[in-house]
Design goal:
Length: about 140
């Protein structure tokens, strides 16, 4: 009746077709932060924060303990840490234990997520309310 997966498959397919410039293999363990100007795929273990401008792919066997930050993030594996991105996809084998700040999120049936979710529009609204409260409390009347 509804064909809702077609758009998702096209978006995911396009992202996964991009040239991956950095790969952390299954047999690699890294202690420290990773920074990429393009796309990074992680299939091994990382203890540290990961930042990429375009895309971070957390492979099915990946284990990450640290925060992720990128325009797009696709999670097939396990992440313990916070996520900041424009778009996040948690696939059926993916798990995130941490807070997510995002514009759009998609969780496949079977994907696991434990934490708080902040949609960026909501975050901006909360920040504006807080600033308004602070401004009101700082006003002095003579």
């Amino acid at each position: 009746m509804f064909n809702l997966t077609k758009k998702e498959n096209n978006t995911t397919h396009k992202l996964l077709q991009e040239a991956i410039t950095s790969i952390v293999g299954e047999d690699v363990s890294i202690n420290g932060d990773l920074i990429s100007n393009t796309i990074i795929r992680i299939d091994g273990k990382v203890m540290g924060n990961v930042t990429a401008q375009k895309l971070i792919i957390v492979g099915e066997k990946a284990e990450i303990k640290g925060d992720l930050s990128s325009k797009n993030i696709i999670v097939f594996g396990k992440l313990i840490g916070n996520v900041t991105a424009a778009e996040v996809q948690i696939k059926k084998t993916g798990t995130i234990h941490g807070d997510i700040s995002v514009q759009a999120i998609e969780i496949e049936m079977g994907g696991k997520y434990n934490g708080s979710l902040m949609m960026n529009a909501e975050q901006r609204e909360l920040n504006e309310r807080q600033k308004a409260k602070e401004t009101k409390s700082n006003v002095l009347i003579d």
